[in-house]
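Hey, I was hoping to borrow your eyes for a little while. A protein chain has come my way and I'm curious about its shape. Take your time with it, there's no hurry, and the full record follows here:
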Amino acid sequence: MAIVASFYGRVLLNPNEIIFSDSGDGIKNYFTYAYHIRHDSTFTSVEGMNYPYGENYLYTDCHPILANTFKLLSAQAPFFTTHAVGILNLLMILSVFFTFVITYLLLVELKVNRWMSVFFSISITLLAPQIFRMGGHQALSYSVAIPLSWLITLKILKNPRKIYLVLLFLNNIFWMFIHAYLGIIVISFLFSIWLLRLLLDRQRREKLIGYSMLVLAIVLPVILFYAYAALTDTHAGRTNNPSGFFLYNAEFDDVLIPHDKPFGPLLNRWTGGIIKLQWEAWGYMGLFNSLLFIALVIMSLSAIFNKKTKALLKTVFDNRALNISLFASMVVLLFALGIPFKQFPKLLDWLPIFKQFRATGRFVWPFYFAFTSFAAYVFQTKILGIKNKRKRVFGILFLALLLATSYVEGFYYHKRVAESISKTPNLFNEDLLTEEFTESIARINPDDYQAIISFPFYYQGSETYSRPRNDEAVRNSLIFSYHTGIPNVCANLTRTSIEESKRIVQIVTPNYYPKKITNDLPGKKPFLIVKSGNSFTQYEQAIIAKGSPIYKNESFELLHIEFEDLFSDDRSKVINDFQEKLPTLARQDAFYVTRPGSVLYYNSFENTRSDTTFRGRGSFKSIKKGKNIFVEFPPNTFRSDKEYHFSMWMFNGEPDALNSWFRVIVEEFDEANNTWHTTTFFPEQAEVINDNWSLAEGVFSVKDPKNRVYLVSKGKDDSKASLHVDDLLIKEIDVDVYKIDSLDNSLFFNNHRVGLR
């Protein structure tokens, strides 16, 4: 209690005055939890983002079981609404405290001396890697989950009483509904223990009922969770091929090498900074535990040839329950390391369910608890086994050094986390809002608006159609959404419906193109624009210009935009503008341009016949994986003092056509120095979407006019989609390009197709 209070006293005394993070996933997770409790009309949907579709609450990291419990209670006790954030903060801090207690009971169950269990439980808890999740992935921060689940399982294996089986079943259900990732990590560890114990038990036939009941308590919660998710999910078309499985795998250095003070910086300096640890896989066990692991590996190799070493190893591995648990955690560790999928990537195609785990590094956590508990048992056994009084003194000194080292390392962990999570006032507490927010919210009548649109426009979720996340824009829009109850069009979620994301991103598409989302909106109420900062795309600026100001300060601006203005047909405006400019326009090649003699490159790909075209009868056709070169420019095509704009239409009408780290790259080759300069763009972030085509575009400049310049695409080697590209245009950014296209009776305007009818 003293340790928890010394680090987290401010949170404990004022839990409802702080949020542990005001950016990224952190603020999103607070928002979905708090908004669900206060505003949502159902228990299975979070309506605060992804308007008008909302999102199934299981996909929003909102602590589903807690959010629904407090939502139910808030009907009778408003305290659970006004103090929802404070309750969540307290639970996360209390998890640290209960990790001490449960780890102590676990060590005692594993036959560690009671006083030794006190000291080792402190060292294990202080270094538990989940502590760092409080600042972002709050639902993953409960370090008590693994030792508690492990302890109940050990109790059942020793004495399969019904009460323990029921308790384990409820425990596993609980963690699945706190966060499915955490639940699966826990259950994969418990299942591995069950499987190894079953295989090694010579009396398993006699104990078949007990083993059957145990596996039901372990596996049934997963089945029930996914059945419930399927029944409550109304959002069709989530990706079945999420990216990132190989991005966040663990390595052995993630569990053996310190990443924080006091040893991390020293080691980094000694090695010249060559050590790169994966944050998602942090599972460092402490200095002496890492040394023990290395020693055991060396001893195991030596035991192959040396009988004495083999005999010594037997004395180390003399606790059957602990041995089984340790090897079970190593099975889970293999998955954390990406084994065997790294060695045989094709396995992911045969077993696609494993693709759902994009951060396998998190699966090091069971190994952390299993090995540190194993180490505690080994150290205390060896020290208590010393008979010689003089040697025992050295043993006690060694134990004191071991524990002191762990405590010092843990001190830096918690000091860092405590400072990080105590910086931000609770933005979901009306009493703590700044004067600007209080004043601006007072000017909003929530009944006047159907949704909030944020600019910069952000959208994260489906991995197929997206817009970059701007932390200021996310924060401001979520604050206004929570305090007014007006839902957000924008989203910062995961695994959203692909079609929903496509329709929402189309909001920033110019209004020369049809927008299917208009058919999904429940009415024609106006929208509230929350404008943050001053950096906007040309398409965002066009929408902002239609809004009427409500409130403005240095940080943000609020605007009112009518439904009819947001979705007005802007074709006539572009056409009239062209007709007015026509007398002053010059002819260049087949186009009218606002400045003749500027760089202008256009390829309609009409020489390449294709069944999949944006315009005409031809298009560039290839495969997504590997490198495709669209055009190569000789030296002295571009100037270094100018900026250029490229745009090309890319087919998005098949699964994973433009996502999964697919890039369009402007490559500049410096032949004299044999170096490449690159500017990278992501087609999945295209703002302009016209049915099954996305306009990939971007601005680039060159470092040296003498260099060759290439426009290429690059896809991952496991990409399976085809690639179709049409109408490639490269021009100077301040030049407008027009052409009357008689084939489809449209106006070509900077590579846009504006219908003349």
